[in-house]
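C-alpha cells help. Our protein:
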Amino acid sequence: MSRSKRHHYIPQFFLKGFTNKENKFFVYDLKQDRFYDTPIVPKNVFLEKNRNTHTINGEKTDFIETEIFGVLDHSAALLLKRIRESKQLSIDDAAELYKFLATTFWRVPSNDSRAQEKIQNSSLKSLGIEIKHKETGETAPEELINKLKSLSAFTDIIRLASPLWEMQKNIGNYDYKHWSCGIDRGHNITGDMPVIVRNEDIDDIFCSEFIFPVSSNKTIYYSNGKKLSLSKSDKRLRKKLDILLVLKSQIQVCGRDKIYLENVINSSKVYQRESQVEALKEEVFSVFK
C-alpha cells in the first residue's frame, strides 16, 4: 500500500474557511518575501513532504498522518463546519474545540524546537506518559526512556498526546463561558501560526487568553476568565490582529483578498523590534479586561 507524502501541518479543512468562491486563496511566502504567482488551492500549501513519515524497525510508516491525524481531523472538520455556520458556540462544540486547538498549536513547524526541548527536558510522567513492562508492571528504566526519546516517531506521539493530557488534567479549570464567537466583516487571514496567544511562555494555551480566526468572517475569542469587550473589535483592530498573525507566522500566510493581504503584509514590516510587536499584541488583546 502506498504511503502518503504530502503532510499538512495546517489541515486543508481549516484552510478552506479562508478561500474565495473558487476554493482558492492568495498565498504570501514569508521566507521569500513574495506572493505566489496565482491563487492556490489549500491542497498545495501549508505542508511538508513526509513530515509525519517515520522509520520503525527498518520500515517507513505514515501511521501518525493516517491513523492519528486522520481520526482527529475527521471530527475537527465537522466541528469547524458547525462553528462557521452557527452564531454561538455550544457546550459540546467548546469541548471539541479544546481538543482541536490543543493539538493544532503543537502541530505547526514554528513549535518544533520548542516541543522537542520540552520532551527532552521533561520526565515522561510529567508529560502524562508512563511506560511499564506488560507482564511485571515494572516502570521502564531511564536508559530505555532516553533511547525512546531519541526516536522521532516516539517524540511526535508524545507531542500530540501531552497537550491532550494537559487539557484533561486542567479540564476542571476550563469554563464554557470563556468562549465567544465574533462575526467579522473584515478580511481575516490565516498563517502557519493560526492561534494568537497572549502569554506565549506557557505550554497550556488555555491558561491564557487567545484569539483564533476560524474563517475569513468569524473569529473565536478565549477570555480565560476576563471580560470580553467586542465593541473594540472594529475594522482597525481586526487589521491589527491580522498584522500580528503575519508577524507570528514564519512560512506562509494566506487570504481571499490579495489587496487586503498585501496591505497587511506591508503594514507588518513597520514592526522591526520585539518591543513594537509586544505593544501591538497588547493593543490587540485590549478587548479582554
User: Anything to note?
Assistant: The mean pLDDT is 88. Residues 6-287 form one domain. The CA atoms of residues 54 and 145 lie 18 Å apart.
